[in-house]
Amino acid sequence: MKRDDIGELELLRQEIEILKKTNIQLQEVGDDLERENQLLKTILDSIHEGVYATDEKGKIILYNREVEKTEGLKRSDVLGKKETDVYSYISENNFYEAVTEKVMKTVKPLIEHHYKYYLPNGKRNDILINAFPFFYQEKLAGVYTVGRDVKTIGEFISNTLVMQRKLTMEENNPANVKGARYLLDHIIGDSKEMKETVALARKVAGHSSPILIVGETGTGKELFAQGIHNASLFAKGPFVPVNCAAIPDSLLESILFGTVKGAFTGAVDIPGLFEQAENGTIFLDEINSMPFSLQAKLLRVLQDKVVRRIGSKTETPINTRIISATNVDPFVAVQEQVIRSDLFFRLATVTIDIPPLRERKNDIHVLGHYFIRKFNDKFGIFVKGISRDLIKPFEHYYWPGNVRELENIIESGMNFVEHQDDELDLEHLPMYFQERLLKTKEISKYMPGIQGTLRSNLQEFEKRLIYDALLRNSWNITRTAQELGILRQNLQHKIKVLNLQKENR
Ligand SMILES: Nc1ncnc2c1ncn2[C@@H]1O[C@H](COP(=O)(O)OP(=O)(O)OP(=O)(O)O)[C@@H](O)[C@H]1O
Ligand SMILES: [Mg+2]
């Protein structure tokens, strides 16, 4: 063989090697894609929502197991077929026109759409769906729909209400220690702010006006709600808490107001939580998460003191104290149209603001020692207290999770105190928290030229930060509070305490 031939052969061999490698890589990518595809298919088939999709021509391209179950059809019989060929459209308002085409035309989702249609065997189906357009390579490529059988929703609501009724009855049974077990006396706090807040709560507990409790997460809103209930004329009645953020929007109305048989498939005669709270207190937690449309109905309940079960023609008068709570600034929520202003004024006949823990340093001491005693009793140990070295960084820490965070940290640290009568110290706390405390301490390093205690430095830093933000926002309180991520009332309080004035500096 000639030299040139050998050279070419070698080149060819190298090319083959490269092609082989590329092939292996492509195969790996293919394997990964296949695995991901398989995983997604498995997930789609294991969820309780029906998922269904059509391409831009109305051809069915996705049909999960839940849809198979509710429609009684086989995936293999519908996939690849046109929607209009699969379903018999007795009603003029068919799925294609009512949903698919609408979403394709408007390129906007359809949310919480109640849709009734007929299956090929003539049976009627009721579903509650959300339908969305989907895009491929920036082009509209079809519509996907996620939905639930209304019958299962009805059953779910009934089960939830029955369960809640049982719970309410159990919890409000005096022989049971659960339920609204906190009294206002159980609220620990030595600071002027906390004493004033508890005094206000005690004063308004005796009236029947609605109360809005505002405070960051972990400041004790639920504690106050229970305390007020127990100090009120409604104390003998039930305390019914509802977390508006935890209940799906589409169910909240039925859960609050109840349903009557026939209101929709699966609906039964059952009182809602308002009726369950008769002669007691209903605690509407995270009220800012309540859908806007439902807020209008709640406003009517507050004004007329009657509720109407869904599907009912009659109204039932109610005698229930309403306490609501929010951990977002309600003024901002009203401004951003998350809370209706008319509802807000009704709910907030009395407002109780619970200050964050960082603003009541005294309480860090008393609460800290209170939690040490609590966990000593619980664990059967004798931790003496909190060391001086730990109390200092505790005072300067920001406590974003407020009292709950303090309680959790103390509980966690007490597990690591080795000798019975030692004090709780920095080294007992989880590593991540030790690091956080140390970082807080380092802030003063960023303020060269300023001397004195960490507390005075922090205050100076806070003052500067707030003043600059106020200037930037032309002293608009709502905007400044938003920028600083604090409640409007907190900002007003700080302006007063730090003595900030427009002509300052
Ligand atoms: N002043 C206090 N005295 C004693 N315990 C308190 C106090 N404040 C809060 N706690 C405790 O802190 C924890 C959190 O309180 P709670 O659940 O009432 O807070 P929350 O404001 O409702 O929080 P979230 O907004 O996260 O729901 C609870 O274990 C509660 O007992
Ligand atoms: Mg709470």
TrEMBL record:
Residues 36-94 form the PAS domain. The keyword Transcription regulation applies. Pfam families: AAA_lid_14, HTH_8, PAS, Sigma54_activat. InterPro entries: AAA+_ATPase, AAA_lid_NorR, Homeodomain-like_sf, HTH_Fis, P-loop_NTPase, PAS, PAS-like_dom_sf, PAS_fold. SUPFAM superfamilies: Homeodomain-like, P-loop containing nucleoside triphosphate hydrolases, PYP-like sensor domain (PAS domain). Keywords: ATP-binding, Coiled coil, DNA-binding, Nucleotide-binding, Transcription, Transcription regulation. Residues 9-36 form a coiled coil. Residues 187-415 form the Sigma-54 factor interaction domain. This is Sigma 54-interacting transcriptional regulator. The lineage of its organism: Bacteria, Bacillati, Bacillota, Clostridia, Eubacteriales.
